[in-house]
Amino acid sequence: MSTMTQDPSIAQNDHDDHHHGAPKGLMRWVLTTNHKDIGTLYLWFSFIMFLTGGAMAMVIRAELFQPGLQLVEPNFFNQMTTVHGLIMVFGAVMPAFTGLANWLIPMMIGAPDMALPRMNNWSFWILPFAFSILLSSLFMEGGGPNFGWTFYAPLSTTYSPDSTALFVFAVHIMGISSIMGAINVVVTIVNMRAPGMTWMKLPLFVWTWLITAFLLIAVMPVLAGVVTMVLTDKYFATSFFDAAGGGDPVMFQHIFWFFGHPEVYIMILPSFGIISAIVPAFSRKPLFGYASMVYATASIAILSFLVWAHHMFTTGMPVFAELFFMYCTMLIAVPTGVKVFNWVATMWRGSITFETPMLFAVAFIILFTIGGFSGLMLAITPADFQYHDTYFVVAHFHYVLVSGAIFSIMAAAYYWLPKWTGHMYSETLGRWHFWCSVISVNVLFFPMHFLGLAGMPRRIPDYAIQFADVNQIVSIGGFAFGLSQLIFLAVVIKCIRGGEKAPDKPWEGAEGLEWTIASPAPYHSFTTPPEVK
Amino acid sequence: MTTENKHENYYVPEQSAWPIIGAIGLFLIAFGAGSYVSELNSQQGSGGIILLAGIAVIIFMIFGWFRAVIAESMAGLYSKQMDRSFRQGMSWFIFSEVMFFAAFFGALFYARMIAVPWLGGASNNAMTNEVLWPTFEAVWPLVTTPDGTTTQAMGWMGLPLYNTLILLTSSVTLHFAHVGLEKNKRKALTVWLGLTIILGIAFLALQVEEYMHAYQEMGLTLDAGIYGNTFFLLTGFHGMHVTLGTVFLIVLFFRVLKGHFTPEKHFAFQAGAWYWHFVDVVWLCLFIFVYVL
C-alpha cells in the first residue's frame, strides 16, 4: 500500500490486496520510518510549496503587467520576490529532489530502506515547521523578509524588517533538515548497495545524488554561518558586514555565494541523473558515455566551489579575481557540454517514442541548454557589467531552474508514477500539461532576455514605459504557466485514484532494479538484497 | 518492521514518535529564538519562554531517542553493516561541522587579508581610505575600528596557552581511554575517560574566566569591531561545541559504569571520541589564527 497520497481514506479504497502493508490513519505519515512514505511526504510538500511560491510569482507578474504601481505596495512586492525565491529554492526544488531520492535510491540500489530511517522522518518533518515560520513572518508587523532571497547585507542587516530573526532561524532549521537528509543519502549509497552493485554500475540518478549530497553537506553549514553573522550584525551590533567596524558588505556576498553557487548545482545535478534515466529508456538504447557522465558530474561539483564570485563581478574585485572566476566559470561548460552531447548521442538513431516523460526530457535538454548559453554570456566579465541585475539574469536562471530543474522533476514524476501508484497516468492529460507548459514557459521567460538586454532592472515593481508591451506578454505567459500546473495536479490525483493497471515495467526500454519489483512497489522492497550481475 | 533474512540483517525501526517530537522541538527553538531576538529591544513578548520550552523538548527527545537506540543496540539488533552506517553518518556530520567553522574562519581571513587592508588604502584603495576614514590605520588585531571604537587584543600567553595544553592533553587521555576499551581494561577506561571530562570542564571554566576578563578589564566585547566579532563568534561557537562534547562524554561515562560497550562494538564511544578530537583540532586552528598570529 504505497500510494502517493496523503489522504488515508483514498489509500484504503484501492488495492487492499497487499500483505502486511502500511499502518493506517494519519499517524502513519507522522511516525513513519518508511522511505516510500517519507518520499511521498516530501513530494507533496514540495508540490504545495511550488503552488505557494507560484502564487507569489503570479502577484509579481500581475503587478508588472503594466508600468506604474497598481496592485501592491513596493515593500510587499519586495517580500513577494524574496519569499518566492526562498520557497522555490528551499521548499519546492530541493524537497522534490529529496523526495525522489527517498523513493528511488533504495529501490535502485537494492536496499531495504534508507540507512537511517528515523532521522529520515526527522529531516522531513522539520520542513513544514520551517516554512510555517517563514510564511508567518509575512503577516507580522513590518512584514516578512524583503531583501531578496540572497539577503545581501546591508539590506538584511541595517534595513531589514524586525522579523529578520525568524527568517534566520527558519533557514537554520531547514539547513539542519537538508544536512540530515544528505547524510542519509550518502550513507545509504555508500553502505547499502546490493551485492554486485559496484560503483560503475550505479544508475546515474544515484551517482548524481551522491555528489549532490556531498555538496549539500559541504555548503549548507556555510549558509548557517552567514545567516548567523547577519543575525549578530542586525541584533547584536557586530560589524561583519559593516565597514565602520572593519568588516565589509562585500564579504557577505563572498560567503553567501560560496554556499550559493554549489547550491545551484544541488538544484540541477539530480536533474542530470533523471534525464540520464529517461532518455535511454525512450530511445531504447543504453546511455551513451556512462563513465564520462559520472566524471562530468564530479567535475561540475568540484568546479562549483571555484566560481562563486561570478555573481559579484560588479563589486569592484581586483582584475585578477575577475579573470580567475571568469575562466573557471567557462570551464564548467566543458563537462556540461559532455552531458548534453551524451544525451543527444543516446537519442541518435534510437527508436524513439515521445511519451510525456520523454517530452519533458527533450524539452529539458533544449531549454536547459539555452539557460546554459545565457550563463556563458553572463560569465564574460565585461559583458556581465551590462547584464548584471537585469531581467537577463532572471531569464537565465529561470531557464535552468524552471525549464531545467522543474521540468526534470515533472519528467521524473511521469516516468515513475506507474511504479509509485500502480496505475498508468493519463497520457492525454500529460501531453496537455507538457504542451501548455513548454509553450507558456517560453512566452514567460524568453522575452525577459530582451527586457534585460534593454536594461530593465530586476526586483523593481515599476518600470520605464518602453518595457510595457514585452512585460505584458511575459505576464500572460506567467499566468498560463501557473494555470498549466493545475493540469499536473489533476493528472497525479487521477493516477492515484485509478486508471489502467501498470505492469512492473511499463516502459519498454527502461533499465534498473526498480522495474524488477511489482507496481505499485510493495511497502518493503528488497528485504532480501538482489544479486546484481 | 524488522527486515530479517539470512543474507543481511539490516534493522529498519518501526514507527517512531521521536522524530516528530524533535521537529516540534526545533520549531519551538527556531520560533522562540527568532521572536526572542526580535523582541530584545522592546523587552516584552514570550519568545524566551518558547525557546526554553523548545530546548526542553529537544532534551526530552534526545533522552528518549537515545534510550531507544541504546536498548536496540543492547538487544543485539544492530549488525556490522548498521554500525558502518552510524560511523559514516557521524563522520559526515563532523564534516558538516568543519564547514560551519570554515565559514567563520573565512570571515576572519577575509577581514584580515582584504577588508581591513583595503579600508587602510592598500591595493588600489587609496581613495577609499581618503574619502571614508582618512585617519584609519590598518593593523591586526584591529584595536581601533574605522569609526573609532577601541579595544584591546587578547594575547596568547597565559590563559589561552593553558587552555591549549588542557585540550591537547584531553585528546591524549581520551585516546588512552579508547585503548583501554579496546583492550577490555575497564578500570583504565573509566579513569582516563573521567580525567578527560575533568579537563573538558576545566577548559570551559577557564574560557568563562577569559570572557569575564575580556569584558570587564579589556573592553574586548562582541560589538568591538571585526576583531571582537570574529574572536567571540569563533571561540564562542567552539565553546558551545566543547560543552556539547563534554555532555556527550559524561553520558558515555555513565554508560561505561553501567557496563556498556565491548571491545568490538562501541560506536557511541567512537563517535564521542571523534567529536572530541574534532573540537580539539578546531581549537588548535583557533589558537594559531585567532590568538598567536
- Strands of chain B, total number: 0
Structural class of chain A: mainly alpha
**Largest sheet data of chain A:** none
Rg calc of chain A: 23 Å
Under CATH at level 1, the class of chain A stands as Mainly Alpha
CATH fold-level label of chain A: Cytochrome C Oxidase, Chain A
- Ranges of chain A where pLDDT stays below 50 over 5 or more residues in a row are 1-19
Residue-averaged pLDDT of chain B, rounded? Answer: 92
Series of secondary-structure elements of chain B, N-terminal to C-terminal: HHHHHHHH
Which overall shape of chain A is indicated by the principal axes computed on the Cα atoms?
globular
The helix/strand class of chain B is mainly alpha
CATH topology of the largest domain in chain B: Four Helix Bundle (Hemerythrin (Met), subunit A)
Provide the domain count of chain B: 2
The percent of residues in helical segments of chain A reads: 55-70%
Give the C-alpha Rg of chain B: 23 Å
Domain Cytochrome oxidase subunit I profile (chain A): 29-533
GO molecular function, one term (chain A): heme binding
Catalytic activity (chain A): 4 Fe(II)-[cytochrome c] + O2 + 8 H(+)(in) = 4 Fe(III)-[cytochrome c] + 2 H2O + 4 H(+)(out)
GO biological process, one term (chain A): respiratory electron transport chain
Structure description:
The complex is a heterodimer of chains A (533) and B (293). Chain A is mainly α and 533 residues long. Chain A has 16 helices and no strands. Chain A has helices spanning 8-13, 27-31, 35-63, 74-109, 117-136, 164-191, 204-235, 249-266, 269-283, 290-303, 319-347, 356-379, 381-387, 391-421, 427-453, 468-497. Residues 1-19 of chain A have low confidence and may be disordered. Chain B is mainly α and 293 residues long. Chain B is built from eight helices and no strands. Chain B is globular, with a radius of gyration of 23 Å. Mean pLDDT of chain B is 92; it is low at 1-7. Chains A and B meet through helix 2, helix 5, helix 6, helix 7 and helix 8 of A and helix 1, helix 3 and helix 7 of B.
